């Protein structure tokens, strides 16, 4: 039983990071119709920048955290302006390949600057575990779940209440109508990339605090697909729910199936789930059904 | 006697569907193929090795272009399918002792069955969703390579014998060159010809407008599956060739990175063009080799360069894809057409 609860807790932590990543992915997909294969690299770059500031320049953690967010926002903003702007109206395969190209470039830049060894964050959160009944939970888990929850709530409010958030939703639902209502669609496009980069780097920073970072962090970007397919590609609620479900399922598979087949189930299980979802319910739990006309 | 006709002088459908439009182009292609058979006598081992890689890549790229370029179904699983071909060839030759000229087509067929199976979701899924489904196929098959140890040998992989033909072992770059070249020519010709058949035209119509295609009586499911099967057959042949070339089959040669390389070949070369697949394959195979030799040369001046060359290769690879998509989205084959069009009326272009 205790084993089960531990798995659920680790799953929730990883799942909440998946949820952040998927949130970024969904944002970009909703607003700009771009499928981003470089989401994991956005996460990785954020994690490395924050680490570099904290370790090499001795910036306090909270400050480097904030600087990283500003940096990520600027990076996302310019990626859209320089690369994606030209691709509007191109076929889907070109856009997929462009983001794949971006991901290789970003991975290469990170490797050239920081090498391929695993690096760990300095002790930011206290080592002493949290005790709930007989269960010990590491503190960084609690903080990361809390931070992710705060971010998700902030974004929900942002989309519901703020002017920019409403404008983003308008662009997502109908670009032409939004344009004719005086919304600056180009700005919204760039903004959604900026925000997506920010949420991903938050995920990256917490992940780095849990496991340390190396360039395999970018594999997280591919895990985002099971999440968004399960939740529905264009649904923000779906991204969050899907992230948690996939995170927990993955850990349960790792805990219970791995001993039977000798490892690897954790990596593969999300994709098996994804194939099943694609076959049964291709638009996911909360996604909008696309209606095709001739 | 020109390479391209200056106008449309065709009087029948047969003429329109001819493989060689003019006598000069026919002659040049024959000359080129003859030259290909002659060059290995003048090349060193390293260049032969590069050429062999190119031949294998051309087969794989033509296959992927049939699926992605001609039928419009994006696949991120080409690497895994090549792996299936390699393992199938390895298993068949190790367990049943099949000679290579039976094992390679058999591996192709096995891969075709795999491809058709993973193509089943294509009935319901399109575009983005299908590409994500093939991504899952890639990971699941990769997992199979590692876990199904009784077939694949797990992480250590399979080790097979060199192909032997009439008692002669194909164990050098030089002798392998001819095997690869012959297979490459057969597969490319088959690809070009396939596009002139009913199936090929059905692929094109599915790509251009699948609803109209269905309304005109094309069985979407059947032709999509055929496209997957044909494309995977190519991947299987390419994979089994790779297996006979390296004689060691390990899972890390068939990762998602390989799938991405093949996609970039057909994007850079030109989607929906056999010639484009060839251009793209040549380009993507040569690019890292050029970078490597550059780093070997510059490494004397900047010793740090040799440590990061792997990262630089990856970065340049990504950059090339981005630049092509931004500035020449139709690929190298469009440049080639422009060049041909320029010489069409030479020297009296006015």
From TrEMBL, chain A:
Keyword Transmembrane: yes
UniProt keyword annotations, A-Z: Amino-acid transport, Cell membrane, Membrane, Transmembrane, Transmembrane helix, Transport
One matching Pfam family: BPD_transp_2
Source taxon at top rank: Bacteria
Membrane topology: Multi-pass membrane protein
Keyword Cell membrane: yes
Cellular compartments per GO CC: plasma membrane
Segments traversing the membrane: 6-27, 61-79, 91-114, 140-159, 188-207, 227-248, 268-286
Record GO biological process: amino acid transport
Localization in the cell: Cell membrane
InterPro entries: ABC_transp_permease, BCAA_transport_permease
Sequence similarity: Belongs to the binding-protein-dependent transport system permease family. LivHM subfamily.
UniProt-listed PANTHER family: ABC TRANSPORTER PERMEASE PROTEIN, BRANCHED-CHAIN AMINO ACID TRANSPORT SYSTEM PERMEASE PROTEIN LIVH
Official protein name in the record: Branched-chain amino acid ABC transporter permease
Organism: Geovibrio thiophilus
Automatic annotation (TrEMBL), chain B:
Protein name: Branched-chain amino acid ABC transporter permease
Membrane topology qualifier: Multi-pass membrane protein
Keyword Membrane carried by entry: yes
A matching Pfam family: BPD_transp_2
Coiled coil (UniProt feature): none
Keywords noted in UniProt: Cell membrane, Membrane, Transmembrane, Transmembrane helix
Principal cellular location given in the protein's record: membrane
GO function terms (MF aspect): branched-chain amino acid transmembrane transporter activity
A GO cellular component entry from the record: plasma membrane
Keyword Amino-acid biosynthesis in record: no
PANTHER family: ABC TRANSPORTER PERMEASE PROTEIN, HIGH-AFFINITY BRANCHED-CHAIN AMINO ACID TRANSPORT SYSTEM PERMEASE
Bilayer-crossing regions: 27-43, 49-67, 100-120, 127-146, 174-192, 225-245, 265-287, 308-327
Subcellular location: Cell membrane
């Amino acid at each position: 039983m205790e084993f089960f609860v531990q798995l659920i807790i680790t799953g929730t932590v990883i799942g909440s990071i998946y949820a952040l990543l998927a949130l970024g992915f969904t944002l970009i997909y909703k607003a700009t119709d771009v499928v981003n294969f470089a989401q994991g690299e956005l996460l990785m770059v954020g994690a490395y920048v924050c680490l570099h500031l904290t370790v090499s320049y001795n910036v306090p953690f909270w400050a480097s955290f904030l600087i990283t967010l500003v940096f990520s926002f600027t990076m996302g903003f310019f990626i859209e302006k320089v690369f994606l702007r030209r691709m509007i109206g191109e076929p889907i395969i070109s856009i997929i390949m462009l983001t794949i190209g971006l991901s290789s470039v970003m991975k290469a830049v990170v490797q050239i600057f920081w090498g391929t060894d695993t690096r760990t964050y300095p002790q930011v959160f206290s080592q002493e575990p949290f005790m709930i009944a007989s269960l010990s939970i590491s503190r960084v888990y609690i903080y990361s779940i809390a931070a992710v929850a705060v971010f998700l709530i902030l974004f929900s409010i942002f989309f519901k209440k703020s002017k920019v958030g409403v404008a983003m939703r308008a662009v997502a639902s109908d670009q032409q109508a939004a344009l004719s209502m005086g919304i600056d669609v180009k700005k919204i496009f760039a903004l959604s990339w900026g925000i997506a980069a920010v949420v991903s780097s938050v995920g990256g920073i917490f992940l780095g605090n849990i496991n340390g970072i190396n360039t395999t962090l970018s594999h997280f970007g591919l895990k985002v697909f099971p999440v968004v397919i399960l939740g529905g590609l264009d649904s923000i609620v779906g991204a969050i729910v899907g992230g948690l479900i996939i995170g927990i399922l993955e850990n349960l598979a790792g805990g219970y199936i791995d001993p039977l087949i000798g490892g690897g189930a954790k990596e593969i299980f999300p994709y098996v789930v994804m194939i099943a979802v694609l076959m049964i319910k291709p638009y996911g739990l909360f996604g909008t059904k696309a209606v095709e006309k001739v | 006697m020109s390479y391209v006709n200056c106008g449309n002088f065709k009087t029948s459908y047969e003429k329109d569907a001819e493989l060689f439009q003019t006598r000069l182009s026919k002659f040049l292609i024959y000359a080129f193929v003859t030259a290909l058979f002659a060059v290995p006598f003048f090349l060193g081992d390293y260049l032969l090795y590069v050429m062999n890689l190119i031949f294998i890549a051309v087969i794989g790229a033509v296959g992927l272009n049939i699926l992605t370029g001609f039928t419009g179904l994006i696949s991120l699983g080409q690497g895994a399918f090549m792996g299936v071909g390699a393992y199938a060839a390895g298993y068949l030759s190790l367990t049943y002792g099949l000679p290579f000229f039976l094992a390679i087509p058999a591996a192709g067929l096995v891969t075709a069955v795999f491809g058709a199976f993973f193509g089943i979701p294509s009935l319901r899924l399109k575009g983005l969703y299908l590409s994500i489904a093939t991504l899952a196929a890639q990971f699941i098959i990769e997992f199979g390579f590692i876990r199904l140890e009784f077939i694949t040998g797990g992480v250590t992989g399979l080790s097979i014998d060199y192909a032997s033909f009439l008692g002669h072992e194909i164990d050098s770059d030089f002798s392998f060159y001819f095997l690869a070249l012959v297979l490459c020519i057969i597969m490319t010709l088959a690809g070009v010809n396939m596009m002139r058949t009913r199936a090929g035209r059905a692929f094109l119509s599915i790509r251009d407008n699948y609803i109209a295609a269905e309304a005109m009586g094309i069985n979407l499911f059947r032709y999509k599956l055929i496209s997957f099967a044909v494309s995977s057959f190519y991947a299987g042949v390419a994979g089994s060739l790779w297996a006979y070339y390296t004689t060691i089959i390990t899972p890390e040669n068939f990762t998602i990175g390989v799938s991405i390389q093949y996609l970039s070949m057909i994007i850079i070369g030109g989607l929906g063009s056999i010639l484009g697949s060839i251009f793209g394959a040549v380009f993507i195979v040569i690019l890292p080799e050029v970078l490597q030799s550059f780093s070997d040369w510059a490494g004397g001046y900047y010793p740090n360069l040799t440590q990061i060359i792997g990262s630089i290769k990856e970065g340049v690879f990504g950059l090339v894809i981005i630049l092509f998509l931004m500035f020449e989205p139709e690929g190298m084959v469009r440049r080639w057409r422009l060049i041909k069009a320029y010489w069409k009326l030479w020297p009296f272009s006015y």
